[in-house]
Design goal:
148 residues; alpha/beta; Rossmann fold; 41% helix
């Protein structure tokens, strides 16, 4: 099991590292720019080109069955699910084959509403409760071998 993190805008990198260190897991922190993150033997900081979806492509090409992917990007979540990985959002809620279709549809609907000026793109703020839920969900996923 390895953990793949879409790291550019990820608010839970420290929580991922805490779980990874506890279980001696490899973590790939993938971003378009250099990140100031403590490293260890099993922490792989990957800086990809600034090309469109370069970080997503790197993750989706490698994450597979038994791995865990951390992302808030619904399209990347769908690609990782197709590869067999377990996918957690930043708030700890899993993306699953049962809910990814609705998530993709809502993403498209919100995009259309923004284009029409009907939605300003407001997202709820990230809370301590979200951080705690994420930490618990990742710990459980790791203990269950990449399954929930």
């Amino acid at each position: 099991m390895e953990i793949y993190v879409d790291a550019d805008a990820c608010p839970v990198k420290e929580e991922v590292l805490k779980v990874a260190y506890r279980h001696d897991l490899v973590v790939h922190l993938v971003s378009n720019s250099w990140l100031r993150i403590p490293v260890g033997d099993k922490i792989n900081k990957v800086v990809v080109s600034d090309g469109f979806d370069a970080a997503d492509d790197w993750i989706a090409e490698r994450a597979g069955a038994g791995d865990v992917c951390i992302t808030g990007d619904i399209q990347l979540a769908a690609r990782c699910l197709e590869g067999g990985a377990l996918v957690l959002g930043h708030n700890g809620k899993p993306f699953t084959p049962d809910n990814i279709g609705m998530a993709l549809a809502m993403r498209e609907l919100k995009s259309q509403l923004r284009d029409m000026g009907e939605d300003r793109g407001f997202n709820a703020s990230f809370t301590g409760k979200d951080r705690s839920r994420f930490l618990s969900a990742l710990e459980l996923a790791v203990q269950k071998g990449g399954k929930l």
